[in-house]
Design goal:
alpha+beta, Beta Polymerase, domain 2, 5 strands, globular
Length: 120
């Protein structure tokens, strides 16, 4: 499955459980860790865990592999690693505190990759 198809599949799984404020970021070229990051909010620990569970079940049903899950036991911030797509499901206060979207602000004029050959 292509990365963009996996993103669509995950977005559908997120919509099924009425997540809040889904953001999909194409980070290709900015990191070698993944191609896309999806960030979404749930309303409670139980809701966040249910959203992450639905993403994992949907992906597995489509024949894809879940590489890892972090934070499921607490439900404040659950990370689901699908390889080319990483999904962050967070409670609003946690999301507001960490502001992951700001870390990946591709439109920022002040951000530029460091050119190690030129000395930065």
């Amino acid at each position: 499955m292509q990365s963009s198809e996996l993103v669509q599949l995950v977005e559908e799984a997120l919509e099924d459980l009425k997540v809040i404020d889904v953001v999909a970021l194409n980070v290709t070229g900015f990191t070698s860790v993944t191609d896309y990051m999806l960030i979404a909010s749930g309303t409670s620990n139980r809701h966040v865990r249910s959203i992450a569970d639905n993403v994992m079940e949907t992906v597995k049903a489509a024949g894809e592999v879940v590489l890892g899950v972090e934070g499921h036991e607490h439900g404040e911030w659950v990370l689901v690693d699908l390889g080319d797509v990483v999904v962050h499901v967070m409670q609003p206060q946690v999301r507001d505190f960490y502001k992951l979207e700001n870390l990946w602000d591709m439109g920022s004029k002040s951000w530029r990759p460091v050119d190690t050959e030129q000395g930065g």
